[in-house]
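$ run holo --ligand "adenosine-5'-triphosphate" --emit C-alpha cells
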Amino acid sequence: MASDVVLELTDIEAGYGKAALVLRGLSVQVRRGEVVCLVGPNGAGKSTVLKVASGLLKPRSGSITLNGTDVTGRSPQELLRAGLSHVLQGHSVFREMTVEENVMLGGYSVADQSSLRERCDFVKSVFPVVAERWTSTAGLLSGGQQKQVEFARALIVRPDVVLLDEPSMGLDPKRTTTVFEQVARMRDAGVAVLLVEQNARRALEMADIGCVLDLGRVFATGPAAELLADPKLSDLYLGGRPATA
Ligand SMILES: Nc1ncnc2c1ncn2[C@@H]1O[C@H](COP(=O)(O)OP(=O)(O)OP(=O)(O)O)[C@@H](O)[C@H]1O
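-- output --
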C-alpha cells in the first residue's frame, strides 16, 4: 500500500439486516490531499460505503484500513479518535446556538485547551466565513454557510480523512459552487476527502478521482476529468453530455 493512502476499503460486502447485499465486493482508496467522489444512480450504495467506512455499518466481509492500520469492525467513536470524521447527509447545525458553539461540539473530545485553540485557528483559516461569523447565531447563516459550519465541526479534531454525504443537498447552484469550493479548501489543507454526490457532473469537476458505483460495485474509476470526458459514462451516469457551444 502506498504510504499516502489514508483510507482503504477492500472487497467490502455489506447490507442491512437479513436483506440482500448492498455492497458486493467494493474497493476504494483515498489518498492524503485528494478528493474522491462517489457517483451513481439512486440506490447504488453510495451512502452505504460511507456508513461502512465510518463504522456505522459493519461489513459482512472485506477490510478497512486507516493510515495503514486495520480498523475493520471498530466503532464510529474509535474511528473518530483514529482520524476519521463523517459529515452525515442533511443539516446538523443547531440554529439557536452560535457558530462557535456549533463548531466546539466537535471538539468535546479534545481535552488540551491550547491544542483546541490551535485547532480553532486552523478551521477559521480554512473557512473564512466561519471566522467572520464566529459569534453569530448559526440560524442566521445561509444554507451554504451552515454547511461550512458542519465542515468546521468535522475538522476541529484535525482528522486525516473526512466523509461527506451529499453536501450540496438542498442548495441552489450558486451555494453548491461555494460548498464545493470549501471541499477543495479542505483538500488543499491536506485532508483526504471521500464524498458522495447526486450532483455528479459538478462534483466531478471539483474532485480528483471519480468512482462510479452501480449495484454495489465499482463500475468505473479514475481521474475525475477522464470520467467526465467518457461519452458512455456521461450518457449512462452523468445525465448526458453537456451541450457544446
Ligand atoms: N437503513 C437501511 N435499512 C435497510 N435498507 C437500507 C438502509 N439504508 C439504505 N438501504 C438500502 O440500501 C440500498 C443502497 O442505499 P444507499 O443509500 O447506500 O444508496 P445511494 O447510492 O446512496 O442512494 P441515493 O443516491 O438514493 O442516496 C438501497 O436499496 C436502500 O434501500
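-- notes --
The chain has a mean pLDDT of 90.
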